[in-house]
Amino acid sequence: MKPIKISEAVVRRLPIYLRFLNELSLSNIQTVSSQELGEKLDLNPAQIRKDLAYFGEFGRKGVGYNVDYLIEKIRQILKLDKTMNVALVGTGNLGRALCNYNMYIKDNMKIVAVFDADTSKKGTLINRLTVQPMQELSDSVKRLDISVGIITVPAAEAQNVADQFVAAGIRGILNFAPVVLKATPGVRIHNADFTAELLSLAYYMDNINGSKEGDETQ
Ligand SMILES: NC(=O)c1ccc[n+]([C@@H]2O[C@H](COP(=O)([O-])OP(=O)(O)OC[C@H]3O[C@@H](n4cnc5c(N)ncnc54)[C@H](O)[C@@H]3O)[C@@H](O)[C@H]2O)c1
């Protein structure tokens, strides 16, 4: 299939559509309109129609979209038709919480290896994963075909871990440490910055009638 160029804002909404469509499919609901999607997801139906038009004009006026077809298309676009193996470095409070959360299994992203620099943690188990020393990172990445790395170490150590991920051949990094990592060509870095989200939430609470997430056009 020829890759379709999609804007970042749309790519960020696709998992939200997918989660709801999966719920509909589990309830044996076969069609959904952009109106229904909009009401449930608090998004503008016109925006939803524009987003879904990327996959061709398959919604039928008055009938809506075929749920299973849409699920299949979104999964193809997000490349969820194959499982992606994930490594996590930093098995402290946050790292352990992420390992214990099974979203990754459901969404074809699976944490398959965990690492920590603290030698006293070596060999301990977190949700059936054995904590490995950092020296084993590179070998495990190759052996287990790991393509995504999660960073849950203190901010001062995050760049060091990112460099080790890149050297091991990892092409996607999700960074939870509150620090900006150096960009590396060919490597995609996403930041999940809890503190920054809270600070911007505080701003929008004072501007409650202003824009909200999902209002983004593009
Ligand atoms: N983004 C968020 O939502 C969010 C929320 C809480 C914490 N954080 C951040 O996540 C990170 C982890 O927080 P935490 O509370 O789990 O910390 P923690 O101190 O409980 O755990 C950190 C772990 O990283 C390990 N570590 C340290 N340096 C390392 C290195 N160079 N290589 C491998 N392992 C190393 C430590 O041994 C420890 O097990 C911090 O940067 C914190 O600021 C982010």
From TrEMBL:
Q: Does the keyword Metal-binding apply?
A: no
* A Gene Ontology term for the protein's cellular component: cytoplasm
This one is known as Redox-sensing transcriptional repressor Rex
- InterPro entries associated with the record: CoA-bd, NAD(P)-bd_dom_sf, Rex_actinobacterial-type, Rex_DNA-bd_C_dom, Tscrpt_rep_Rex, WH-like_DNA-bd_sf, WH_DNA-bd_sf
* Compartments (UniProt record): Cytoplasm
Q: Which residues bind DNA?
A: 16-55
What broad class describes the main subcellular location of this protein? cytoplasm
Keywords for the protein's UniProt record, in alphabetical order: Cytoplasm, DNA-binding, NAD, Repressor, Transcription, Transcription regulation
Instruction: Tell me which NCBIfam families the record gives.
Output: PRK05472.1-3, PRK05472.2-2, PRK05472.2-3, PRK05472.2-4, PRK05472.2-5
Question: Does the keyword section mention Secreted?
Answer: no
Q: Look up the record and give one Gene Ontology term from the biological process aspect.
A: response to redox state
Q: Where is the CoA-binding domain?
A: 79-180
The family classification in the record reads: Belongs to the transcriptional regulatory Rex family.
List the GO molecular function terms: DNA binding; DNA-binding transcription factor activity
What does the UniProt record say this protein does? Answer: Modulates transcription in response to changes in cellular NADH/NAD(+) redox state.
Which PANTHER family does this entry report, sorted A to Z? Answer: REDOX-SENSING TRANSCRIPTIONAL REPRESSOR REX, REDOX-SENSING TRANSCRIPTIONAL REPRESSOR REX 1
Fill in the subunit field for this protein. Answer: Homodimer.
User: Which sites bind NAD(+)?
Assistant: G90, T91, G92, N93, L94, G95
